[in-house]
Amino acid sequence: MTGTVGSHDLDPGFADPVFGSQSAFRGVLEAMSRPGRVVTLSCLPPAPEPLDPATAALALTLLDFDTPLWLDQAATSEAVTGYLKFHCGCPVTNEPGAARFAIIADAAKLPPLDAFDAGNDLYPDQSATLILQVKSVTGGPRLRLTGPGIKRDARASVDGLPAGFLDQWARNRVLYPLGVDMILTCGEAVLGLPRSTELGG
After folding, report:
1. Model pLDDT, residue 9
2. DSSP state of 198
3. Which spans in the chain are helix H?
4. For residue range 14-68, what is the model confidence (pLDDT) as tens digits?
5. Which domains are assigned to the chain?
6. Which of 60, 74, 175, 199 is at 20 to 30 A from 15, Cα to Cα?
7. What does the pLDDT look like over 80-128, one tens digit per residue?
8. Strand 189-193 versus strand 181-186 pairing type
9. What is the pTM assigned to this prediction?
10. How far apart are CA 191 and CA 29, in angstroms?
11. What is the dihedral of CA 88, 89, 93, 96, to 10 degrees?
């Protein structure tokens, strides 16, 4: 059928789905438990453009039938939506506030963080997790990170965060234990920003 993506046109998922998802889960768990640490994922699937391999690995690991997903305009294509629906079975929503996960391929056009679900007092764990692709997680403006999981402070160099991001993150941080979590991706690497982390320049 013209203009549609069939399963034979899709990029494959993990070569070994069990091993691949377990490896990616360990990587993202390390990144989220040690904010500021860059973790390179060792088992990566092919990724439809414009997704980074790390973004695709996280999607295959974290998304399922019960996790509504929001995609920014850059990631909204037949190739990406077909890939995610086929491999993850996740429903795609047009409303950021209805999503449990979001993939933002164009960081410059990141919506306001308060557009996403920050959880509620009974279920703060039901807030959204944002997967944000950036230009680099090893080179760029220096950030100072403090908070749980960080002994004193940590340093990270991230290139590609949108204008005003630190102010937005500060407003998200004061909502704790509510607030969104974020995972930065670039190529094969991930860097975790839990809602409990404080960021400074």
Report:
1. 64
2. E
3. 17-33, 53-62, 78-88, 165-173
4. 989 999 999 999 999 999 999 999 999 998 999 999 999 999 999 999 999 999 9
5. 15-200 (3.40.50.11310)
6. 74
7. 999 999 999 999 999 999 999 999 999 999 999 999 999 999 999 999 9
8. antiparallel
9. 0.93
10. 10
11. -30
